[in-house]
Amino acid sequence: MSAGDCSTVTPDVDPGGVPFAQLDPALLRTQRTSIKWTRFPADVLPLFVAEMDFALAPAIRETLIERVQASDTGYLDSAGPLAEAFAGFARDRWGWEVPHDRVHLATDVATGIVEALRVGRPAGGRIALTTPVYPSFFEMLEEVPFEVVEIPLAINDPDRAPQARLDLAAIEREFASTQGIDAFLLCNPHNPHGIVHSTAELTELARLAAKYDVFVVSDEIHAPLTHADEAFVPFAPLAAAAGALSVTTTSASKGWNLAGAKCSVIVAADEAANRVLEQLPPEVAVRASILGLHAGVAAFSQARDWLDRVVAQVQANDELLAGLVAEQLPGVRYTRPRAGYLAWLDFRGAGLGEDPHGRILEEARVALNNGAAFGEGGAGHVRLNLACAPDTIVEAVRRVAAILPSAR
To answer: Of 408, 348, 295, which Cα lies nearest the Cα of 62?
Structure first.
């Protein structure tokens, strides 16, 4: 079953039944202490970092309270029950059969990526990314001895609603080049565009990785948030079938809003990859949070209905934003996501100059992500968070529309 199946949006309440009035940004700023609510002054509407405004799923909240009441705050040395919970979710949602002993623990997905690269390609080399892409990839790769090679996505229909896909021809050219590519960091689904890569695309990528001996690390953190009318395809089974060395890094942190809980998994695609992950230092598991582990277990096994309602609300917010952009933001083009809750907006034709992000922050008092940080092809774009009350999106667009040249 796809995420979001059989789920509908309940008017005026979030996925857990909390009234949207309680998710007013002014109120949340008095209750929450993450960077979303503390980085900017109180008059700035924060829609930048990938955190949901929605309240935690009740099953997760109850699990965390139970663990704290039991003083269960010690160290970990393995994925334990999280391996079974993740494997059950992967089987039920994506048809991916994951042996429990192939699931390894890490603090977060960034740690999983870095540590997987350290054992998978200890000598470093050249690593390819398809850009524009999650900007923290560039930051985390500073920790390992790799030269970053940017391979721009292929953009179709640029004059209407933009659609981005993997440029497999360009990927093969880099793989086959004289210098070659040692590792490939796949964003699946792709952030910031919300692309759901097709089976055919990923099968070809796996074939190329096997042919050119490229180690593929697939970041699948947004996979649980695949929209109801799409089918997410895990890369690992395709890599295993092609004989490509690959691991998957993922977590409940995006799907269930658990970023600060600090617990993720690294999953080996096959036994060859598992032998690589068995070389991970013990500290990789020890540094994960036991509270995050139990929150992840509750997410994957007990909070699936909540997740489906999140997806339904995000899709409703996407529809809302698309209409508002068409009506109020002339010159702006919106790449509609097919997974996740992040909206990618092209402001190059809106008349705000070379730095629309800065203009929007300073003049409209709306904090978005600057597309320039996402690598080649990102300049002139911004990323907006859809995981909030609909009125928050309406207010953000109203503020931005007021500073466009057309409004003056």
So the answer is: 295
In CATH, the number for domain 20-56+304-407 is 3.90.1150.10
> What class is the 67-302 domain?
alpha beta
Ranges of each domain in the chain: 20-56+304-407, 67-302
Q: How does pLDDT run across 89-111, given as a tens digit for each residue?
A: 999 999 999 999 999 999 999 99
What value does the mean pLDDT take over residues 119-145? 98
Q: Sign of torsion, CA 221 217 114 267? A: positive
Helices (H) and strands (E) in the chain, counts: 15, 15
**87: helix, coil or strand?**
helix
- Is this structure's pTM higher than 0.70? yes
DSSP 160: S
Q: What is the pLDDT of residue 10?
A: 87
> And the tokens for 287?
């540094």
pLDDT of residue 353: 97
Provide the percentage of residues in the chain whose pLDDT is more than 70.
Answer: 97
Q: Which residues contact 388 (CB under 8 A, 6 or more apart)?
A: 23, 25, 47, 52, 53, 54, 317
Angle at 262 between CA 387 and CA 318, to 5 degrees: 15
Cα separation, 405 vs 249, in Å, equals 43
Contacts of 30 (CB under 8 A, 6+ apart): none
